[in-house]
Amino acid sequence: MKKFIVILFLCTGVSLQSCKNFLEVQPLDQVSDEQTIFDKTSAETAVRGAYRGLANLNYSGGFQNTILQSGADIVSVNVGLTDLSVTNYNLRSDIPFLQTYWNNNYNTINRTNHILEKVPLVNDVKLTTELKNQFLGEAYFIRALSYFDLARLYGGVQLFLTPTKSVADKLGVKKSTQAQVYAQVLDDLTKAEALLPSTIVRNRATKFTVYALRARLYLYLKRYDDAEKDLNLVLANTNYRLIKPFNLASGTTESVFELTYTINNQNPGFTLWQGNRQLSPTATLHALLNDPKVGGGRKILSKLNASNQFIGSIFPTNTSANYVIRTAELYLNRAEARLNKSTPDIEGALSDLNQVKSRSEISNSTATTKEAILLDIENERRIEFALEPHRWFDLVRTGRASAVLKLADANKYIFPIPANEISTNPVLEQNPGY
User: Fold this and answer.
1) Where are the domains positioned within the chain?
2) Could you report the per-residue pLDDT of 31-45, keeping only the tens digit for each?
3) Most buried pick, 58, 168, 222, 253, via CB within 10 A?
4) Which stretches does DSSP call E strand in 359-430?
5) Which fold has domain 6-411?
6) How many angstroms from the chain centroid is the CA of residue 39?
7) Is residue 287 within a helix (H) or strand (E), and if so which, with residue range?
C-alpha cells in the first residue's frame, strides 16, 4: 500500500450559489504519494484527501447502486448477473464490487490514520492548536463514518487504528465483532465531539455532524434515549430546518452533511440516473412518489421521460451534492427514538413525523398506537429517501427485512467478506452462510 494519497483543493471554504443553493469546493491537483504531513498546508491537504475518499470512493455510484437495489424500490435498467445476485440476495464473495467497497473504506480509513498519527507531531506556528484539533476531529469523524458503513455492510470487520504501510501490516489481523466495530465508531465520534468546532459547515465535520451521526448509530444500538438527546442538540439550532416546498437540499438548512463535487471532481452517482443511466425507480415507487397523498412535493424525484420511462432525479447535474445526512432524517430518527425510548413520547414522535409530512404537503399521520406510528415512519422514510441509500439498512436494523423483502435468512442481512481477503489472510473468517 502506498504511503498516502490525497487530493488537493484550491478553496478552503465553500461558496453558495443563490440560484441553485449548491456548495462548491474547488479541486486543484493531486498530491504525490511521496508527500507527507509536515506543516499546516500538508496537514490541510491530507484532511481534504480524506474527504475526497468519502466523496469519490466510499459514496461512489457503485455503493449507491447496490444498496438502492437491495432495498427493492430501485431496479437496474440493464439487468446483469451481478444485479440479479443483489436483487435475489444471493451474493457471492468473489463479486468484484464487494472488494471495491472494502478497499474504498479501508483506503479512506488509512488516510485518516495518517492524519491522526502525524498531525500531532507537526511543529508549524501556522498550524495552531485550534486548527490542529479541528483536523484531528475531522479525521476521527471520517474514520467513524467509514467503520460505521463497513459494519453495516459486512458485520464484523478488521479494526486498523494506525497507518497501514504495507500488505504485511494487514495480515494476521482477525475480525472484530460488529458490536466491537460500533463501539470503535462511538469512541471516534466522542473524540471528534471534543475536538470539533460548533460551526455551521455543510460539507465538513462539526460538532453537529457528530451529534447527527452518533444519533443514527444509537438507533442501531437501540439506545433511544441517547439518540434523542443528540438529535435535540442539532434540531435546537435554527440552521437545521426543513425547507418547504420539498426541493434538493444542497447548501440549505435541510443539509447536515453532504459531499460536494465540481466539474473536475464529478459526482459518481450522476451516471446512475442520467444519460446512459443504470437505475430506475420501480413502477410502485414512481406511483407512490406521484400520489399527492403520499409523495406530495416529492414527486419531483421520479419523472416520466419522452419514452415513458421512470427517471430518478436525485442528481440533476454531475456536480450535484451527495447527501449523507439530511435534516429530514433527524426528525424521523427522533420520532423513532421517542417512540422506542424507556418512556415513550407518542405526542413528540407524531410532531416530528408530521413536520416531514407537512413539508412535503401531505396530511398529518392518523396513527395513534406506537406500532402504527412506527409503520408510518417506515413508510415516510421510504418516500423521503426514495433515491438515497437508506431503505435496505433501515429494514435490516429494524428487523423488518423478513416481512417487507421476504428475506428470512438473517445471514443475508450482511454481505460476504471479499474472497480475496479471505484467501490472503488465513485468520480472517468468512461470514456465516457464505
Assistant:
1) 6-411
2) 333 358 999 999 999
3) 58
4) none
5) 1.25.40
6) 31
7) helix 283-289
